[in-house]
Every structure is written in C-alpha cells, then in structure tokens.
Design a protein that fits this description.
Blueprint: H1 5-18, E1 27-29, H2 36-43, E2 48-52, H3 69-74, E3 77-82, H4 85-90, H5 95-107, E4 112-117, H6 121-125, H7 129-141, E5 152-156, H8 170-188, H9 190-196, E6 197-202, E7 222-223, H10 231-241
Parallel strand pairs: 1-2, 2-3, 3-4, 4-5, 5-6, 6-7
Helix pairs in contact: 1-2, 5-7, 7-8, 8-9
This protein binds 2-phosphoglycolic acid.
Residues 157, 162-163, 202-205, 223-227 line the site of 2-phosphoglycolic acid.
C-alpha cells in the first residue's frame, strides 16, 4: 500500500520501458489489488510478469471482500505472494489460513505461489530460527500435492530485516536457505525440490547490497520491497542478481 493507483500505473510503464532489453531470469511485479488489472494491461507483451500480494482460499461464493486464485489468473497474474509477515501480523493469518491459501493457489496451474517464511528477531535471538523455519514450511505445505511442472517459490524473509534498510549477512541467508532446502527435502522429497521449488531472499535488498547476495548457494532470486518502488533501482538489482 505504498503507491496509489496513478503512481502504480506510472511506475509500471517505467518498468516496462526500462526492462525492454532485459532478457535474463524471471521478473515480476506485484502491485496492490486495485491496480492489478491495469498493470497487467501495461505489462502485456513485455518481459515482466504480474503477481498479486494475496489470494483467498475459495474459488467462488459468498466471501465478501476476497479475491480468488481463479480471479487473479483470469486477469493475467502468474505469481501470488502468500503468508507475508505483514499479513501474518496485521491480518492474523495463521498456519491454517496460509495452508488453505497455498493449497488453493497450487490447485490453479496458472499460478505460482511465493510463500513467505521467516523468523522474528526474538526467535533468532533465542536460537529458534531453524525450528521456526521448518515449522512454517511444514505447516504451509501440509497436504499440498505438487503435480508435474507446478512451481513453488519459498521466500526467506527474516522479519527483523524487512523494511529496515539493513539486510542480514549474506552468510546468514545462505545458512537459512540450506535449512529450508533440507526441510523441503524431508517434506516433499529431493526430486520434487530440485524440479519444482526455488528459494529466494527478501529483506532490505538494494542496489548497494545485492552483489553480496548474488552468488550464494541455494539462492534463486530475491523478493524486493522498498527498492522496487523505483524503476532504476529495481533494474540495477535485477541485473546484478542475474549476472
Ligand atoms: P523490503 O521489503 O525489501 O523493503 O525490506 C521486503 C518485503 O516486504 O517483503
């Protein structure tokens, strides 16, 4: 909720233009729900894909105020962020809710869920990070059947690094990604992990610190918040991480 409708469309146009010569990796932007449809029209035919910041777990029915995975796919969304720590905190999204959303999004083969997990500062301080990451993964993926080429992205976002301007040490991110990969191997099996899963990092990434995150083991990309509000900054980050 950082930009209004007009600001979002103007930024989307800049993104489309700046990324026109960019053909590495996979880039998506996830604007607010109110701007999704129009941004989708702007991005059409370009390199950047469209993503949403949330989805409901039912497809249709009397669920006032909600937007279903099918509705998102219908307007051209390819990605859906689920379980962001801000929603866990402000909207009281618990394990059950997030799991229902993951299952609903995975069922829609046009969509790729970006499932956010991450420990709080307190959990890190008391050495509970690994446990929390494993628990969040187990809960989010409980009963999820991964079919064929269905992709799932796990975003490791240490809550204490989001929006602070200071990312965590790259070595710490690398360690957390290793824990996540091992847990995924246990939950869905190694073959599925290597074929269907990606692990990305999020939390105060900028063009200044992105270099140190570029070549880490088990690092498949980034979830960028504040730095994605400026097209030049976002392009620099995209170029650096795909070098
Ligand atoms: P940030 O946000 O990059 O501004 O820390 C990340 C996020 O909200 O997921």
């Amino acid at each position: 909720m950082n930009l209004n409708f007009a600001e979002t469309l103007s930024l989307a146009k800049k993104f489309k233009e700046k990324f026109s010569g960019f053909d590495k990796g996979e880039v998506a932007i996830c604007p607010s729900t109110s701007a999704l449809h129009e941004v989708g029209k702007i991005l059409k035919g370009g390199k950047i894909k469209l993503g949403a910041q949330n989805a409901f777990w039912e497809e249709t029915g009397a669920y006032t105020g909600e937007v279903s995975p099918g509705m998102l796919a219908e307007i051209g969304c390819r990605y859906v962020i689920l379980g962001h720590s801000e929603r866990r905190k402000n909207l009281f999204e618990n394990y059950e809710i997030i799991n229902k959303k993951v299952r609903a999004v995975v069922k829609n083969e046009k969509l790729i869920p970006v499932i956010c997990i991450g420990e709080s500062f307190e959990e890190r301080k008391t050495d509970r990070r690994d446990f929390i990451l494993v628990e969040q993964l187990e809960q989010a993926l409980s009963g999820v059947k991964v079919f064929g080429d269905q992709r799932i992205i796990i975003a490791y976002e240490p809550i204490w690094a989001i929006g602070t301007g200071t990312a965590i040490e790259p070595a710490e991110a690398e360690y957390a990604h290793k824990i996540i990969k091992l847990a995924l191997n246990d939950i869905v099996g190694m073959r599925v992990v290597s074929k269907n899963f990606s692990i990305i990092y999020g939390g105060s990434i900028s063009s200044k610190n992105v270099k140190s995150f570029a070549n880490l083991e088990d690092m498949n990309g980034l979830l960028v918040g504040g730095a994605s509000l400026k097209a030049d900054e976002f392009l620099k980050i995209a170029k650096e991480i795909t070098k």
